[in-house]
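This part of the workshop introduces the protein records we will be handling. An example says more than a description, so a record of this kind follows:
>
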Amino acid sequence: MTMSPKNDSAQSKETTMSEEQPGAMPGEQPGELPKAQTKLHDQLMRNKVEATPKGQSLTFDLDSLPEVFAPSLDNLVVTVPLPAPVTEEELLERFYEICYDLAPAVARQPGETIEANDRVIIDVIGFVAGKVMPFSAKQDLELIVGVDTFLQGFTALLEGQTVGESVVLQVTIPEDYPAAQFHGQNAAFAIDIKYAEALTLPDPDNPEQISTLGYGSDLEAIMASIVEEIYVERTSELLELGDNMVLEALVQGVFVDVPEELIDEEIRRRWLLTEGQFMAQRSFSVQEQQEALDAMLQEAGLRAETYQRLKIALCLRSIAERDNLTIKADEVDAYLDEIVEVLGLDGHELRQSLKEDEASRNEIVSQYIYLRAVDHVLSHATIHFEGAEDV
């Protein structure tokens, strides 16, 4: 399928996504299962561990990379800055997020017009100069019409469209888009509007209505509860920031000579599990997929981030070996129990699968050792929090 909208007003089959048979990934034949895809349980476990920045380097095959001298854990001290105070704008945004989340909803029928404050689910992919824009492919993206959580001004363009249709919308890429070279450029976004529902929002001036949110009996009490909720979240974010600052300080000054092709491969693996998988399901040609992958590979910020994650992982591996961080079978079992609980998997089935799949079993052990090494490093660090006692 060709999906390169060159006519800004085009809404034909050539410029929209369809439900054709999945295409091939770059380097594969149509209809083949992509070689880089993992088994379902393996992918789910990757997602679980990689959800935290501390685990973001776990897709690397560290055995193929050079040894790194284990850095010292002495004098590992970081200072976490105070967060900015909660603003009135943040309070209002959170208030309406809560309203949207808890509002009664009625599904709109195919062909029905979308209105402001509707919740919509779309598939979307963006093009600049007829080529796929990195980081733009999203599947089952949930948005509120009129609320800019994706791209500034994007959801407002959905108002007046109809449920079930495919459209192409023009958007100017904002300055906070992750691919800096596209800032300020006009992009065409091909969109499938898969679902929409009308929300009945409470009247902020009606205590009886807003009390149903469960945050307080009136607006003042609700805002006080929201402030408390935001500060609880920020406490968690500060703790995570402190951990990440320790890891950054640990590897500061460490140089690792990583071949560029290994960084390419890691980016490709991640791309295959996200945008690549989406594009194959939507029957993009191999050439179109390769163009999208090439654009991702050229992202300087992504390459630097990938290199940094790799450097941290290598240093942690060296520390685990130097400090003889051993693990016991029951520790790995407890780790598996955590994964099973978080993801709602069948524990017996997972363990049976790992018995038959040595590669996945070894990967689980490597992941656990990695996390143990992170905890080991943090136990030797001093984290100062501005305005609080040291931990």
